[in-house]
Amino acid sequence: MCGIAGAISIDRKAIPRLKPALATMNELIAHRGPDGEGIWASSDSVCGLAHRRLAIIDLSPSGHQPMVGQSGHVLTFNGEIYNYQELMAELSGFWHFRSRSDSETLLAAYAKWGVDCLSHLRGMFAFAIYDGERLFAARDRFGIKPLYYTVVDGVFYFASEIKALLPFLPEIATDPDALAEYITFQYTIGEKSLFKGIHVLLPGHAIIIEKGEVRTHRYWDVHYNVDMDHTPRWFENRMREILHDSIDVHLRSDVPVGAYISGGIDSSLIAILASGREAAGGVGFHGKFVDFPGYDESDFALEAARSAEIELHQMEITAADFRDNLGRVIYHLDQPVAGPGSFPQFMVSELAARHVKVVLGGQGGDEIFGGYARYLIAYLEQSLKAAIEGTHKNGSFVVTPESIIPHLTVLQEYKPLIRQFFSKGLFGALDERYFRLIDRAADMEDEIDWSAIDQNAVFERFKGIFNSERNVRKEAYFDSMTHFDFKCLLPALLQVEDRMSMAHGLESRVPLLDHRIVEFAATIPANIKFTGGQMKHFLKSAFADALPDKITHRRDKMGFPVPLKEWFSGELKDFVSDIFQTQRNRHRAYMNSDAILANFDKGERFSRKTWGLLSLELWHQMFHDRASEYRARLDRAEREFREVA
C-alpha cells in the first residue's frame, strides 16, 4: 500500500512546473509511504507520475515506483493485487518478470488485456498507467483505496488524498451539493467532494484521459439476483469456503500481519479465522474507554483474542487523547466523514504501527450481512403495519411481529432514534422511511441555515440509489437498505479505514470485501441473511463453531462508541466551546454559531450532531483558513528545483 499522484495535460501541451508539482504532491502524502519515493515525467512534460512507497510485497528495490515496464508503460499503484501469484503464472509466457511485486503484475496485465485487465484483478487498488497515448486510472470495486481528481487550466491532476490537489486550486471553497449531503448523512453519496472542483473516482469505476477527452465508466457493480433454489445449509457451506479462501490471499505478505479486534462479530471472526496461518503475526490491537460505563468493550476483544490464541495489545483512550489528536484526525481524513469512530481508529492504528505494517479488519460485514440496528427498527415499523393490515401471514415477509420480538432487546440504546423515527411519517413509503432513519440532520433545526441547504435535492439523489431496479430487482426492503449503505456509507467508512491507518504508514486489509464474497452474498435471500430480524443471522450461523458464544450472543454492540456526551459536558466543554467560538467569529456560511454554542453539550448519549458540526468547523480551520499555505508549497518546490538546477 502506498500513495500515488500525477498529472496529464488533456490537450497534450507541456505542463508548466511539472516536476515541482509532482514533488509537492508527494510531500503532502509522505505519511502514506515511509519506505521510498519517486517521480517520473515524460520527456515532453505532458504527463508525470509520483509515488510514495510502503513496502509490503517484494521489499527489494525492484518494487520501486513509478515503475516502467518492458512495454514502456509507466505505473503508479496503491494497494494490493491479492491474486498476483496466479496472474504471474498465467502471464509468464507473455511477460518477463523482473520482480516478485504485484505492481509489475499490473503492468503485465494491462499490456496483455488493456482496460479489461480490471476483470482479472482481485484486490484493493487505485492506480494510473500512462502508455504514451493515454492515462488509464481505476479504483477497486468497493473503494477500499482512494482516488481523487481535479482539472485546472487544462491539466488533469489526481492523488490518493485531496490535500495533494489543493495547491493547484484557484481557491479552496465548499461544494454546496456535497455539503448538503454531508449535513444529511455525514458523508457524501456521489462523485463530488466537499471541496468545490475536486471529484471522487467512484468505486468500481475507471477513467481515461485521451485525445482531449476525460471519460469515466463503471466496470463493476453488484446485482441482487436472489437464489431461491438452495437451502440455508448450502449457503453457509459456500460462505465458509470463500471466506477462508479470501483470508488466505489477504495474508499474502512479506511482512507480519496483525488484526484489529473491536470485540464485535466481524473483526473477531477475521482474527480467529486468520490465526494459526503461517503469515499471521499472532497479534491483535484494541482501544478502550474506561472512564464511563457502557463504553469498554475490552472483555469481548479479550475473548476473541483468546479464541484466536493471539496476543492482544490494548490502549486506554482518554479525553486528553481526543484534545491532542482531533486536529490530526481531521487533517488526515481530508474532509469530515462518518461518525466519531475515526478518532479511536486513529489511536489504535498508531498502536498497531509500532508492531506491524499490515492489519486485518472486519469492515464490510454490517453492510453485506445486515449489522445495523436501523434495519431492525425499519422492520419493526413494517411488521406493525403488516399486523394492523392483516397481511403478516401471507408468507412474503422477511420479519413478522412474532419473529421480531425476541430480538428487540438490542434496541435498548436506540430509544431516542426510535422516538424520533416514529414521530413523523409513520407507515410512509419505504424510501421516505429509510431516508428518515439515516438523516443525521433531524435534530439540527436551529444549527443549520436550511435556506441555504437543498435537502430535497439530496432526497432525490438518495431515491435514485435506494430505488435502483438495476441493482435490486426483488422487493425485499432489506436488500434496498443494505444496497444503499453498501454503495454510499461503506465508501465513507473505507475512507476512514484508509486514512486512519495510512496516517501511521499502516496497511489495513478487509477480507470480507472480496468481490466473490460480495457477489455471493447478494444472491442469498433476505429471509436467510436477516431471519426473524436477527442482525447478521447468516454470518453467526455459518461460523457458529468459530465464534465464541459471548460475542455471538451479545446484544449491546454499538459500533465504536466514544463518550462524547460525557466529555463535551465535562472535561472537554471549554475545548469544544473555544472551537465553535472561532466559527462564530469567522461567520461560517450555512451554520448558526449561536445555536451551536447554546446546544453542543445537550445531545443524546450517542447523538452525532455535535461531532458532525465540530468536524466541519475544524475542516474549515484546517483547509479553508490555510489555503495560502497549500499554494505556497508549490512555489517553494519550484524554487528548490531551480536551486538544484
Q: Topology, please?
A:
Layout: E1 2-9, H1 18-28, E2 36-41, E3 47-53, E4 67-68, E5 74-81, H2 84-91, H3 102-113, E6 123-130, E7 135-139, E8 148-152, E9 155-159, H4 176-185, E10 199-200, E11 205-210, E12 213-218, H5 232-250, E13 257-260, H6 265-274, E14 280-288, H7 298-308, E15 311-316, H8 319-333, H9 342-353, E16 358-360, H10 365-369, H11 373-389, H12 401-404, H13 415-422, H14 430-438, H15 455-466, H16 477-502, E17 507-509, H17 515-521, H18 526-529, H19 537-542, H20 549-552, H21 564-568, H22 573-586, H23 593-599, H24 609-624, H25 627-644
Parallel strand pairs: 13-14, 13-16, 14-15, 16-17
Antiparallel strand pairs: 1-3, 1-9, 2-3, 4-5, 5-6, 6-7, 7-11, 8-9, 8-10, 11-12
Helix pairs in contact: 1-25, 2-3, 5-17, 6-7, 8-9, 9-16, 22-23
Please state the CA-atom Rg, rounded to the nearest Å. Answer: 24 Å
Number of strands: 17
Silhouette: globular
User: Into which percentage range does the β-strand content fall?
Assistant: 5-15%
